[in-house]
Amino acid sequence: MAFKEYAQYDGLGLAALVKKKQVSPAELVEAAIERIEAHNGKLNAVVHKAYDEARRTAAAALPDGPFKGVPFLIKDLGQQVAGWPRTSGSRFVGDVVDAADTELVRRYRDAGVVLLGKTNTPEFGITGVTEGAFLGPCRNPWNPDHVSGGSSGGAASATASGMVPLAHASDGLGSIRIPAACCGLFGMKTTRDRNPNGADDYERAIGFSVDHVVSRTVRDSAAMLDATGYPEAASPYAPPPKTGPYLEEIKWSPRRLKIAWSGETPSGRPVDPEVQAALEATVDLLRSLGHEVVPKGLGVDYRTLYRAQAYVSGANFAASMRRMVEAKGREPAPDELEALTWANLEAGRRATGEQAMWGWQQLRLMNRQILALFETYDVFLSPVLGTLVPAVGHIDPANVEPKEVGKRQGAAFPFTPPFNFTGQPSMSVPLHMSQSGLPIGMMFTGRYADEATLFRLAAQLEAETPWAGRHPPVWG
């Protein structure tokens, strides 16, 4: 075994060993490869392996960044890596080979990481589970009969099982927070435009999606956002304000926060009793830490909110697919897209310009309503999932009828999307475990551009209820 203690360290811990010359980047790469080969057959987390390239990178001079020598994985959706295939989880896309790194990938490299490969994602990242006909299901290291979440399920499964200490992830309606909650990780959805989107990232035109990481520790997430989250040249959007390094913020306890909390779901159905108990235990914990915690929901008309989002997201997906069709020179064949993807595409193509703009207008009005809550409260608390972690196959978009997928997703993942619409930072914190041994994550959402308060609160919770030493059966 190249470095048997590898999985005991987070990313900053591994980088500290490299700096002290106690271990080399090459040894870390071999340790990561060993663990991928040991666990990937059970989990299907890594779908593209670039071992030879990683070995060459580790043997060469690396940038002197905060994660120098640390093995790292990129999600197979959105971000481009020079010379690597990109499938977006779709048979229609196939293996498009990208010519150059995106800006965010360049920043990851500047942080010193060694890119090892790509992680599993569902077709076009549509679902909150990582199951698909093309790449196959990704499984949870806490129990491989259950999902790892989505759409960054491969990243979460790889990180939770100890293949890497942190991995790239993205979040359009919950795709960082959901897999972090399913796999017992920390996952920060950043403020909109905190990290670069890239000059040609047309799929991010509506602004719901952001990129960051899932990690086993709060400090790794903070340090990576310090390394990547600075203004992008020629970006049409002003970067969100930032008061200082997040790695410094986590050294300070948060002031006494005023926190609203709710387990209210859009459908009105109660959450699973274990999830409700975990939520109430979190409220008690926050009060014991001196915070003011008040029961208070978002108070929005969810039916109207999601109708507006459906028009906007549908039209955007149809426009993105048109670009893919133009690039390929043909429409997808019937068997090249899953049934759920076809349903979304057809709905997007039916949406009129008037409907899409009504959706935008309605979201703007309702975003104001949600953001008004944060004039009174510093943080909003809810669960991440409304159920316990679903079993593999329960929300499988390749085999379950599209309307039923929507119904089951609505029950499992009711809480995350509104904060993609508002652009606020929102994090999943792995505070609890179910009686069956599966993680239960709690979601904390902060004011626009205020990751600092969330990082401080996360570090306080991590110190009070440490989770990094809690390992799944598929581990290390």
List the helices and strands and how they pair.
Elements lengths: L10 H9 L5 H19 L2 E4 L1 H9 L11 E5 L9 E2 L9 E2 L5 H8 L3 E6 L19 E2 L2 E5 L5 H8 L5 E6 L5 H7 L2 E4 L20 E6 L2 H11 L17 H4 L8 E4 L11 H16 L3 E4 L6 H27 L10 H12 L2 H21 L5 E5 L18 H11 L5 H5 L3 E8 L5 E8 L4 H14 L12
Parallel strand pairs: 2-5, 11-12, 11-13
Antiparallel strand pairs: 1-5, 3-4, 6-7, 8-10, 9-10, 9-14, 13-15, 14-15
| Number of β-strand runs | 15
CATH C-level name: Alpha Beta
**Order of neighbouring strands in the sheet with most strands:** 8-10-9-14-15-13-11-12
CATH topology: Amidase signature (AS) enzymes
Counting structural domains, the number is: 1
Please give a quick description of this structure.
The chain is of the alpha+beta class. It is built from 15 helices and 15 strands.
If you had to describe this structure to a student in words, what would you say it looks like?
This protein is α+β, with helices and mostly antiparallel strands and 476 residues long. It contains 15 helices and 15 strands. The chain has helices spanning 11-19, 25-43, 51-59, 103-110, 153-160, 177-183, 218-228, 246-249, 273-288, 302-328, 339-350, 353-373, 402-412, 418-422, 451-464; strands at 46-49, 71-75, 85-86, 96-97, 114-119, 139-140, 143-147, 166-171, 186-189, 210-215, 258-261, 292-295, 379-383, 426-433, 439-446. The strands form 4 sheets. An 8-stranded mixed beta sheet has the order 8-10-9-14-15-13-11-12, sandwiched between helices. A 3-stranded mixed beta sheet has the order 1-5-2. The mean pLDDT is 96.
